[in-house]
Amino acid sequence: xxxxELEGLIASRLRDAxxxxxxxxxxxxxNGDIDAAYRIQQRNTDHAMQVHGRRIAGRKIGLTSxxxxxxxxxxxxxxxxxFDDMAIVNTGIVGMxxxxxxxxxxxxxxxxxxxxxxxxxxxxxxxxxIEWVAPALEIVDSRIANWNIGIVETIxxxxxxxxxxxxRKLPFTPEIDLVNCQMRMQENRQVVSTGxxxxxxxxxxxxxxxxxxxxxxVGHPIxxxxxxxSGALGPxxxxxxxxxxxxxxxxxxxVVVRFGAESGS
Length: 265
Description:
Layout: H1 3-20, H2 34-52, E1 56-62, H3 66-72, E2 78-83, E3 87-88, E4 93-95, E5 103-112, H4 123-129, E6 130-140, H5 151-156, E7 163-166, E8 170-171, E9 182-187, E10 190-196, H6 204-217, E11 227-232, E12 237-238, E13 244-249, E14 253-260
Parallel strand pairs: 1-11, 3-7, 4-14
Antiparallel strand pairs: 1-2, 5-6, 5-11, 5-12, 6-7, 6-8, 9-10, 9-13, 13-14
Helix pairs in contact: 1-2
């Protein structure tokens, strides 16, 4: 089978998995090629926009925490697309039937006031382009059976994206301590994950800068009004039905979501 046909087949199987159930790992089929994985992801991004009219709300960075990298057996970040219909309002409800194998993690989100498209972008330039910062919960999900994934599977599967929740937005200033801020996430009233900003590539803006440069390189730069989920601040946790998840990030705020029978957005 030709490379383009194989990538198209895998993309189709990933789309079908949303309704028919998780599929087997496929990294060996593309010889572990990360570029092929991103091409598969882009195929499904294009399909979502052109066939279903979905709109891009931003991007997510995955695998920025060494803890999460160890959980999944990978050693580098990845990225995926956030569509506007993936957003759940703060304190809203997510329907479990709309997900396959959900897990959840706490992150810091950034919103951008202008396009980020300068190839010579540096950290100081990034500061000037960020409009707001907020606590966030990312609900990750996998179309791969039993989360048996390597970096090829997770990239092709849109960085294992599912849903996301953004808390109250604060005006961004460089004075906000994004490194030492402590994160605590509770499942109902029990603490299930802790961490800090430093867990995200040493600084969440290191992750955001990595992403911004990568997207410029591949010709899909961050646009004004888009948001970025910068990566997990602690271990991800398997979601339980009829449970509420509450994350508090020191100096930034709190964000809440509940899982049940009804879907909220």
